[in-house]
From TrEMBL:
Key words of the record: 4Fe-4S, Chaperone, Cytoplasm, Heme, Iron, Iron-sulfur, Metal-binding, S-adenosyl-L-methionine
Residue ranges annotated for the Radical SAM core domain, each copy included: 13-245
PANTHER family reported for this sequence: COPROPORPHYRINIGEN III OXIDASE, RADICAL S-ADENOSYL METHIONINE DOMAIN-CONTAINING PROTEIN 1, MITOCHONDRIAL
The protein's role, per its UniProt record: Probably acts as a heme chaperone, transferring heme to an unknown acceptor. Binds one molecule of heme per monomer, possibly covalently. Binds 1 [4Fe-4S] cluster. The cluster is coordinated with 3 cysteines and an exchangeable S-adenosyl-L-methionine.
Subcellular location: Cytoplasm
Domain of life the protein comes from: Bacteria
Official protein name in the record: Heme chaperone HemW
Membership in a protein family: Belongs to the anaerobic coproporphyrinogen-III oxidase family. HemW subfamily.
Repressor recorded as keyword: no
Organism: Oleiharenicola lentus
Principal cellular location given in the protein's record: cytoplasm
Length: 401
């Protein structure tokens, strides 16, 4: 194909893959110390303008008659919207995305959970609530800049369960500043006592331009890779023994409760991102909206969307990302299946890399060609992923000369 080097032909999709919809709700009352997602305080008529913008942007999407299989609302804090605003947002999405998704997740912060908001979400057809708990420890919550208390967590969880949502996730974070292993174990114990269907356990990361990054640069907090590795290993062992199957480095679920939207994303299928900073992988392109409410509204008002970081979805790009994210999943990556899906990608660089990763004990491989990270490999999944990307990029460079 003209304009793209060998191995970088624009990807063709012979059969439609599942389509997801992500809606970014950018509003937060305050900014948590660790958060690097785009957010803004909802002043004046900001929420009304946002809802108008979502409706306008959804009308710009080339849906092609396809219905969304999954939907995910994140933020920000979707729960800052009032019940009638949540209802309008949901009806807009349902109108344009082809009807009721099979799975529909909404992130909620404990302090924003009310019976009225939950009733609206349930009536709309939301199937899955992800509750941003992070910790049950007051001091640790304060260290993260979170605006809820453990008491609000319990109240929110009870209200969510009372509405009868099909699946409930609890988000937790570990390796927090000053956190000891006993405190992390206590958080896990308390989460298990609540008996959610799904648990997401994230190692605290220090993103640039966050309050935690500033504290790190000032020496007020420190990285401790050995403690992080210990927390990872203890978490995997403990939750596995408690009946939660790990299906991705940070995610655990009871049978039938894995997050389908995330799985489809990690498999490099398609999704439409709506709202400021919303990212899309759709209709042959990967791109995002500007992370600014005013700029996004201006784009949409001019009939534009997904204008930032616009990149053609080549087979090389999709293949490399499918391997990187696939290795984070416990099921691993079927290389024969991916090679059939992306036959024009350059696979030679990965083939050269795999023997070393196997020799170093970071990967295992089956006779059927399925590769998986070992427990040791999962501890450095990001580093392995970086090597995989470099292998694909190096091979692409060599064949395009």
């Amino acid at each position: 194909m003209a304009g793209l080097p060998s191995g970088q032909e624009k990807a063709q999709t012979p059969t439609p893959t599942p389509l997801g919809v992500y809606v970014h709700v950018p509003f937060c009352a305050t900014t948590c110390d660790f958060c690097a997602f785009y957010q803004t305080v909802p002043k004046g008529d900001a929420i009304a303008r946002y809802l108008d913008g979502i409706e306008a942007e959804a009308g710009l999407v080339e849906w092609g008659g396809r219905a969304a299989a999954t939907a995910f609302w994140g933020g920000g804090t979707p729960g800052l919207l009032k019940a009638d605003q949540l209802d309008r947002l949901g009806r807009i999405m349902l109108l344009y995305c082809g009807g009721q998704p099979t799975e529909w997740s909404v992130e909620l912060a404990p302090a924003t959970v009310t019976a009225e908001r939950l009733a609206v979400l349930k009536a709309l057809g939301v199937t899955r609530i992800s509750l941003g708990v992070q910790s049950f420890n007051d001091a640790l919550l304060d260290a993260l800049g979170r605006q809820h208390t453990p008491a609000q967590v319990y109240r929110a969880y009870d209200l969510i369960r009372a509405q009868g949502f099909a699946s409930v996730n609890v988000d937790l974070m570990f390796a927090l500043p000053g956190q000891e292993e006993t405190q992390w174990r206590a958080d896990l114990d308390e989460a298990l006592r609540l008996a959610p269907d799904h648990l997401s356990t994230y190692c605290l990361t220090f993103e640039e331009d966050t309050a935690l990054w500033v504290k790190l640069s000032q020496g007020k907090v420190k990285l401790d890779p050995a403690k992080e590795a210990l927390f990872y290993q203890r978490t995997w062992d403990y939750l596995g023994a408690a009946g939660f199957a790990q299906y991705e480095v940070s995610n655990f679920a009871r049978q039938g409760h894995a997050c389908t939207h995330n799985l489809n994303t990690w498999h490099m299928y398609e999704w439409v991102g709506l709202g400021p900073s919303g990212a899309s992988q759709h209709a042959g392109w990967r791109a995002s909206n500007p992370p600014d409410l005013g700029l996004w509204l201006a784009d949409v008002g001019a009939g534009r969307r997904a204008t930032a970081d616009r990149t053609a979805l080549t087979e090389a790009l999709l293949a490399s990302d499918a391997v990187v994210f696939g290795l984070r999943m416990n099921a691993g990556v079927s290389l024969p299946r991916l090679r059939k899906r992306f036959p024009r990608a350059n696979w030679s660089g990965l083939e050269d890399l795999l023997p070393r990763l196997l020799l170093e004990g970071l990967l295992t491989a089956t006779q059927e060609g399925v590769i998986r990270l070992t427990p040791r490999g999962r501890l450095i999944a990001d580093a392995v992923g970086a090597e995989v990307l470099e292998a694909f990029e190096a091979e692409t460079r060599s064949t395009s000369r």
